[in-house]
């Protein structure tokens, strides 16, 4: 048993939660406990809270695959150049699956959080014991955190931020029919929730049974992000600075970026908000069942036993391939079996983020990278993130199939460092913060032994190789937009890349620019697992074109189809429009 929270997830009370559904209002389930009979003790409240955590692990909350297919980060799999993926093509509408499923998952979490808040409010005034009052407050603070987080996701995802607000538990059918609220009111609402969580959650949990619960640092990170999204840089910086400098949190970058993407070193010092998954429970359930405690993201991303439904985009692969390593850092040098000392094939960040066929220094599914996957159908790289490439030879080795125990790190310190750097230069408008911003960017880069920005003068890493450039606020912001954030955080968190592109106002232009970039794949000779010479045809991505080689281009359709009015936010889902008569 890894953590008791996982045990409770497996056994959790499944609270009522689907908005816009009236069937359960008309029929009584004799097997369900009523709210009056359930919310009697703090143990009841904690059990109800676990159902909120259970809602957070629903894959539809983050919608990782298609949130990134909307951005410039991915190709939706199965061989270029043909795809019917409506999110990559930007042809989705209110009836599309992702917005409907995401909406349902988020409001289900909100409904469960409201039950906890209401249940604890009834209990908290009855305690004379300060310890019970404190415990009740912390339980309530966790529920407020998740309600605030789910509304933050709704606000940043749907209908320009205008969505219904539920701050109560519906008691009758009409209670479910709430109108759209002004985006500013929604924003104020979720920030109030997060402020309550920030003030009342612990800085860290000390008992092993509580590891994985949310903290004040997570609340501060989400608050800072919400202010960054509206370009309130001073306010955002206040929260980010607290996350970075407050010793009570104890956050630090992990020694290796790879510590954040596999089953090894979960809940580590860099992790601020993390979804816990486990293979230890519920093996008898359908892997997609809501009450399951394992993940299916490994199958979505993996080409080895999985569906390879999300692949890195061409420009991103090329950017990873061209990351400049610090020639003064010994981590960038390896010694071959014949005693030859050479630089790594690719940077540490690249090798832990994506699999490339000609990466000589990182195994892939317990083989060499070229042996580990097919690299065919113009697939010149695969994401390592969310896959078990380091512990099995095939995702199907994990039994039962369609399961993974890899925790999803939703917010980590590197993201906060880079957002804080953005606040210091005020989005590229304030030169006064350039040197300090470079410091935080360079901390992220140094962790992966990359060449640092600027000069060694006043650098924390004076012996490291620096690019010697004199950065302005504008050029440093360009670096954050097109290099540091996408390469450090690719396919992580809640729609990080798409939300970044939208708030920077670059989405349409980005698709247009990328649709003009052409690539082809060079052939790669390698030694097969049988020791015989073999070739990965067209597997090494190369910019430009070459006679007789297949030309590859991304985002041609997105460049034509994307419009701010139709695609910058998910629309109100048709399921809500049909079931809620007060929304026009």
Automatic annotation (TrEMBL):
Residues 280-583 form the RagB/SusD domain. The lineage of its organism: Bacteria, Pseudomonadati, Bacteroidota, Cytophagia, Cytophagales. The keyword Signal applies. It comes from Persicitalea jodogahamensis. Residues 1-21 form the signal peptide. GO terms for cellular component: cell outer membrane. It is found in: Cell outer membrane. It comes from the Bacteria. This is Membrane protein. Keywords: Cell outer membrane, Membrane, Signal. Residues 23-228 form the SusD-like N-terminal domain. Belongs to the SusD family.
